[in-house]
Design a protein that fits this description.
eight-stranded mixed beta sheet, 10 helices, about 10% strand
Length: about 260
């Protein structure tokens, strides 16, 4: 649930254009206010002002964050504060997760440059985009990454690949700004109604519940891992709303047939 959403609420749906056509940076469980403020400053350097914070460790508002923002306080003042990641990401249709580590989850891995060029073209078609950042201590967990469509990985040297939260935000923001200079053909606005994170996550959860009824999960530990894999499977693909409805229909049909036999 969003506890604090300062400023005017702006829809991220496909009908929003103009100055709102930019990705939203979502920070999952950030710790130090100084890092949040420095990240806001890096965002503002490159014309980005849409920030969401999920359960900031030291509470909100944070005076140290505003001090570190150094002129980018408006980014923090208008930030949305959320209690859980699923709600913070729910309305977005394309999510990029930033991580330096290899994961067992199968995701498309992109450089910041490739991701932001793609993001700009998607937003021209009306697709809503978010970039997800993890905490300073441990980065993003698999459960959080499962909400993403693709992974952004900075090509740092393997023996020292971890980046500060603000550094990562700055790099992605820089590539977003740079992508504006890349000559591309104009993209017509798509009429396809692409499903968002919340719709695809709900689909995965419904399938997981149906599988639980069949005894598919034999232990609690087994269930948690398989639920994450199932969510990753559904969120990795660009389903339309119609396709999500079809998959819900298939699940209901199979459930009814199973109970009749």
């Amino acid at each position: 649930m969003c506890r604090i959403c300062r400023g005017t609420a702006i829809s991220v749906g496909k009908k929003v254009y103009g100055r709102w056509m930019q990705p939203t940076f979502v920070f999952d469980s950030p710790q130090l206010g100084e890092n949040i403020g420095a990240a806001a400053r890096g965002m503002r350097n490159f014309g980005l002002d849409r920030m969401r914070l999920v359960s900031p460790r030291d509470g909100w508002p944070n005076p140290k964050a505003f001090a570190a923002a150094s002129g980018a306080g408006m980014v923090l003042a208008n930030a949305g504060i959320f209690d859980d990641l699923e709600t913070a990401l729910g309305e977005f249709q394309r999510v990029y997760a930033t991580t330096a580590r290899r994961r067992e989850l199968t995701k498309q891995v992109m450089t910041p440059k490739a991701a932001m060029v793609e993001a700009r073209e998607l937003m021209k078609r009306g697709v809503s985009v978010a970039v997800l950042f993890g905490s300073e201590r441990a980065g993003l967990e698999n459960k959080s990454i499962s909400f993403a469509s693709a992974v952004i990985s900075v090509p740092a040297i393997p023996e020292f690949s971890s980046l500060n939260l603000a550094q990562c935000a700055l790099l992605v923001g820089y590539e977003w700004r740079l992508s504006e200079e890349i000559a591309v053909e104009p993209v017509a606005i798509s009429e396809v109604d692409e499903a968002n994170v919340l719709e695809k996550a709900a689909l995965a959860d419904k399938y997981a519940e149906a599988l639980k009824e069949t005894g598919f999960f034999d232990t609690a530990q087994n269930e948690e891992g398989k639920r994450i894999n199932l969510r990753n499977l559904f969120l990795r693909h660009d389903f339309t709303v119609s396709e999500v409805k079809t998959l819900h229909g298939i699940r209901r049909f199979l459930s009814v047939r199973r109970h009749r036999t």
